[in-house]
Amino acid sequence: MRHVTRAAVSIIALCAATAVHARIQPQTQPGGDPANPQAATAEAAARPAETGGVPDIVVTAQKRSENVQSVPIAISAFTANALQERGVGSIAQLSGLAPNVNLDAGTPFSGSPSVLSAYIRGIGSDDFAFNIDPGVGIYVDGVYLARSVGANQDLLDVERVEVLKGPQGTLFGRNTIGGAISVVTRDPGDTFRVKADVTTGSYDLLQARGTADLPITDDLAAALTFGVKTRTGYMKRIPYTDPLAANSASYTGFPSSGYSSPTDEGGDNNWNLRGKLKWKGDHVTVTLAGDYTRENSTGLANTLLGTAGNVPGNFAGTANLPGTAFDPTGTTGFLFAGLYNFCIGANTAQIAARNAQALCGVRGTQYNTALHQQPIAGVNVDGNPNNNLLPYDNRFLTGNKDTSYATGNDFSRMTSYGFSGTVEWNPAPNTTLKSITAYRQLDWRSGVDGDGSPLNFLQLSFAMHQWQFSQEVQLLGTLFDDKLHYVLGGYYFKEKGGLHDYVTFAEGLLQVDGPNALETQNYAGFGQIDYRPIPLFGVTLGGRYTREDKQFEGGQQDLNGFNYKLFGCSDAQGNITPNGPFPLAPVTCQQGTGYPDPANPIRVYAPGVNTQSFENFSPKVGVQLYPIDRVMAYASWSKGYKTGGWTTRLTNPQPTAQPFGPEKATTWEIGIKSQFLDRKLQLNAAAFTTDYQGIQLNFQQGTSPTIRNAGDARIRGVELEAVVAPARGLVVNASVGFIDARYTSVLPGVVAVSAPNAFQAGTFVGADLPKTPKWKINVSPRYEAHLGNGATMILLADWTHATSVWNDAQRTYVLRRPTIDIFNASVAYREPGGKWTLTAGGTNITGNRYLTTGNENISDGVFFGTYSRPAEWYVRLGVSF
């Protein structure tokens, strides 16, 4: 680790030495005043450097417009033009362009590419459940998106995207412990303009987008933008030729949030609409905005990676407790996959010897006979070949990443919309009072066939409804001849909704039906001052106080009443006896098995509304040095915070709800931002160390993915971003990120469920954190050539290299992402008048495939994952007038 720190210091020292050398010919912004860099920035930001150098980018990372080079925060900023030329259409596609950032479309078993798994500098969240908040905040025009569902936003007619690294709790607040991604959409123009494009490509891609600026009066203008995208899936479902496949129960025979079995997976069918209305008065500006997204697609492409039917377990052993089918040693029985295979292949005597008549009997209970499924006991040995069933094992591995024997659900349906109103009032010179009021609503359903077979071995579906309201007020201004900039504000947020889980394991041996409801209220006050008393030196002081109140009620139940059947409290016809005698103690079966709700004998989650309250103060302190024009060195200390919650996906009876605590991060950072050689070289570097406490991660506990505080970690890293413009028309963007993120302590409860085993490397002190590649490198050259006829040719390439990464907290071997190299390239022709542009390109040209997400369920015997998209081509025609 000492070598990493030395490397970081060496990089920053090199930048500083270059800055000192540059004093020989000090630079000034074109038309600018070195004593007033922001005024100079405002002029230069609107246009590229006249000398063909690196253009400026204006950002609002500190709630005011500034040149990104003057903000003492590590930021990767992307303009609208850069996003379009690189074919970046969603937030997840930014992943390869920003160092120490990992963005994936989809989380384990979400089944939807609209769900975002976001990690910055080793901190984030890889889940979509309502009970866990994201660790990287996503903002659209200053409005926070509370759910990871729908957070993988289509970047439709944006002005820029800012990726802020490290805790951003002071100014951005809720759940920005890892960082923030701020999407800024384009404001209406003052003149009439129409811009549109249509794209075709691999897998029958058809995408059309358009935007129009509509000036209404001198002070009032509107903008309307739309986008439509359809594409067939790259994974094909193929029939399993064994006729026994037809004997399995239909996937529609089990509860689900919906039903759809397509012929391919990984497709798109969505459309978006956004509108803005902006009025500018003498001292007041009012912006009204609205957006609507509709998705009706196949879900993520899921590949079966492996099965595990022979792992010993507690069910139907030869060393069972008297009167039960429960083996406390966990050595002579089965888990769910093994139990299913045993049931269909054992005769009556063998099943009776293990007290497994009820386990192998009717699937379902007397409380809903419409959901009953036929017994599976001995069907393959009863002399009747017409009812034989397929075992679950490796026969369903196709050997091809892009084919599957799945016959169950695969869909993602989402409706998301929101409205916001932003009012900016300038009551006095250098003073602005700003209000952002917003309402958003989300309705989402998805379905996943995780088992990759004609069986119903791991069928997952979800339904989420959520609404949120937020109100933010900011007072911004400058004092002392622009030497002091301040931001003071207040924030209110309320969210309410629920997530309903439906999961069928092992042909219905376990059937989870889990309604969950959550309500959150958040209050915060924040402030920051940036004071530069002399041109050489500046200081930043800020802080945010937050109070958050949460309410939660879980309703998880098992429609098969498996534990009653396991402990001898049911019959082979599916009838359970909650009030009958428990075989191991003089109590009822419901009491003995621990089911917590007398009114609902199959409910496993403790009834009642649970509450938690959290309070936090997140400070920030920073200093800046400006040795020469266009060079800034900075150091900062900041804290981040994310509230806790409750784990929900439990399948064994729980006497009480299981809460988890908050996360905290403390980060030290040093960095430098610089431009040299007449703005032909821009070099930004940062080194950081983070103390990360109470890490919230998803750990598999039996069949249940449960959220736990895993322990603590130390994260250290370095990142370097460079832009070089050596000649007119040629610009090369490059970045390097190195990060070392390891556990420094692991809580005993985590050790118990995540010890190393034959399938997993496990979680322990010194182990790497998930979703965090050690090295990430990107090089993106762009060359613009002016042809003799006045036309322009643009050549663009991207290369991203990332070292291997663990995709899950327990570090499952089959889910590990290898070292990857991704190449993209395009060529564009812009006609002399600039009215139209034709672009042809390819993504993942070398076809390097890797797992973006996945899940292991050893208890159910299933390992599955989603591979990145294969090599694809596209052609786009864009017009503007």
What does this structure look like?
It is found in: Cell outer membrane. Residues 34-49 have a biased composition (Low complexity). InterPro entries: Beta-barrel_TonB (IPR000531), Beta-barrel_TonB_sf (IPR036942), Plug_dom (IPR012910), TonB-dep_rcpt-like (IPR039426). This is TonB-dependent receptor. This protein is mainly β and 881 residues long. The chain has two domains: 150-154 and 187-309 and 395-561 and 602-880, Maltoporin, Chain A (Beta Barrel), CATH 2.40.170.20; 310-391 and 567-601, no CATH class. 7% of the residues lie in helices and 47% in strands. It has eight helices and 45 strands. The strands form nine sheets. The chain has a 22-stranded antiparallel barrel. The chain has a five-stranded mixed beta sheet with strand order 3-9-10-7-8. The protein starts with a helix and ends with a strand.
CATH overall fold name of the largest domain: Maltoporin, Chain A
Largest sheet: 22 strands, antiparallel, barrel
Shape: globular
Helix content: under 10%
Domain TonB-dependent receptor-like beta-barrel: 382-845
Protein name: TonB-dependent receptor
Membrane topology: Multi-pass membrane protein
Signal peptide: 1-22
